[in-house]
């Protein structure tokens, strides 16, 4: 089966000065990031949003991938942006935020700043510890997708949550949490006051764990988890453009 309509990766070629990599969430697709990407493109940025391996087709495909595969895809996209743009920012939703943090940990000041929307770094529910065992018995559980407050808005995501892939995501959380102190870039963290997927402790762990001295926290009062498609989407879009413009390298003056 091919890629679902609307789930395709996308990009916009704008300024060579500033690039913005966007990372979508677990079981989701670039569709959840498209309006954000369009807004960044309208502001003149070069934008890339890859489709993560195992996503955007059928949920069993995701069980055949691991966090290293997802990270490899965003890492490759970041390297391509770094080769063409003078200043690069990275933003992500949910697991996309987790991947963004991992990129920040690895690439340091080569990334000018990161924007996190409801990032995940843990899950407190008791069943999380059972994922490795559960994955050998049960291929999937009910979906986590489509947590949106805005009426009529639907997330393009899998109808089931693949358990083996979820167990790999839990491994990624542990890796990212262990290295949070390596994050030194400016951080814009936006999180929903009500989120039925990612618990509030996630944003607190990130805020407490990073070493960044330039950190801005924004509470989204009228959105659930998929905030990039929810009532506060414009807040995310506007604040991320302001953030990038404030932290972008100044164009070099010509003689």
TrEMBL record:
Pfam families membership: Hydrolase_4
Domain Serine aminopeptidase S33: 20-230
GO-annotated molecular function: hydrolase activity
Gene3D superfamilies per UniProt: alpha/beta hydrolase (3.40.50.1820)
InterPro entries documented for this protein: AB_hydrolase_fold (IPR029058), Esterase_lipase (IPR012354), Hydrolase_4 (IPR022742), MAG_DAG_Lipase (IPR051044)
Keywords linked to the UniProt accession: Hydrolase
Protein name: Alpha/beta fold hydrolase
Organism: Amycolatopsis nalaikhensis
